[in-house]
Design goal:
By secondary structure, this protein is an alpha/beta fold. The protein contains eleven helices and eight strands. The chain starts with 7 loop residues before the first strand and ends in a 15-residue tail after the last helix. The structure holds nicotinamide-adenine-dinucleotide.
């Protein structure tokens, strides 16, 4: 079982990192959330404060998070971390750079995980020194992390069984239900999701149905909690495009993004965070 002695570093305080940090702090782990952008840290703190203010949480939860969660701009503050999860933008070059820095900052033996949506873990592992690759793994959470029980665990070629076991134990401790996927671009979850998102965009391109009607169809006929265009707006359209491009490179045209998606991004309609995307907010 996981001893209480772990300290956690979450690198990136954006949409995912801030809530990954929250669930670790709620589970009573001392947690540092690192981001070089002070505005991201302030926004993360406000977001977490607003979530904790809701009726889902008790005063004891608020006190625990207050005591356990620290925001910092300095990666060096993770020198004592035993588990570090990278949650920075879906950009291979940036992730490689930051993973190499994480390996230099932390002690050998620390578990390093990536929350990448689509980049193969074995590819990212190349950024780490060879002797650290057995403790590197994919831990793919779903948004919003504070609500979604999903945690996809993706071992890379070099990942040790002990690291897979530890990631699986963390899933249980965090109240998540693990699934396992082989290390292919997009893993299982985003190959499934982007098959739907690609087809939804094609239907609009072909004039078969409107954005609104496709969202409604998925909610009413398929029982999805949100439609594909609402989901893209939530995830953010720029991230959706990055994932499309990674999947298109790996699997070809079947995952190609639509012209409409590129145009939306060109006009700054990035989704909810921008106040407009496929829908207006
Ligand atoms: N948004 C989703 O629904 C979702 C779901 C699952 C997985 N993911 C994956 O999670 C990762 C993060 O996505 P997001 O939506 O949170 O992105 P985001 O853009 O909301 O946040 C990324 C954060 O990383 C920070 N950052 C940039 N460079 C950094 C560095 N060198 N060190 C530390 N922080 C740095 C940025 O300042 C930003 O705050 C991506 O790999 C994405 O594919 C996203």
């Amino acid at each position: 079982m996981i001893a209480g002695a772990h300290s956690i570093g979450i690198v990136g305080a954006g949409q995912m990192g801030r809530e990954i940090a929250l669930v670790f702090a709620l589970a009573d782990f001392p947690t540092w959330n690192v981001d070089p952008d002070p505005a991201a840290l302030t926004s993360a703190d406000l977001h977490v404060g607003a979530l904790l203010g809701g009726t889902r949480y008790l005063d004891t939860d608020r006190a625990r998070v207050h005591a356990r969660l620290t925001y910092t701009e300095r990666l060096a503050d993770l020198s004592g971390a035993t588990v570090v999860i990278e949650a920075i933008p879906e950009d291979e070059a940036l992730k490689r750079k930051v993973l190499a820095e994480i390996a230099t900052t932390t002690n050998p033996g620390a578990l390093i995980a990536s929350n990448t949506s689509s980049l193969p873990i074995s590819l990212l592992a190349e950024a780490l020194p060879a002797e650290r690759r057995d403790w590197f793994i994919g831990m793919h959470f779903a948004a919003p992390v504070s609500r979604m029980k999903f945690l996809e665990i993706i071992p890379g070629e070099a990942t040790a069984n002990a690291a897979i076991e530890m990631a699986t134990e963390f899933a249980a401790v965090l109240g998540k239900q693990p699934t396992f996927s082989k290390d292919v671009a997009g893993f299982a979850s985003n190959r499934l999701l982007f098959a739907l998102l690609t087809e939804a965009q094609r239907l609009v391109d072909e004039g078969v149905a409107t954005v609104e009607d496709i969202d409604r169809t998925c909610r009413l006929a398929l029982g999805h909690p949100v439609g594909p265009f609402e989901l893209m707006d939530h995830v953010s359209n720029d991230l959706a495009l990055s994932i499309h491009q990674i999947l298109e490179q790996a699997y070809g045209d079947r995952f190609a993004p639509s012209k409409a998606l590129r145009e939306l991004i060109g006009h700054g309609a990035l989704g909810r965070k921008a106040g407009r995307g496929w829908h207006n907010y």
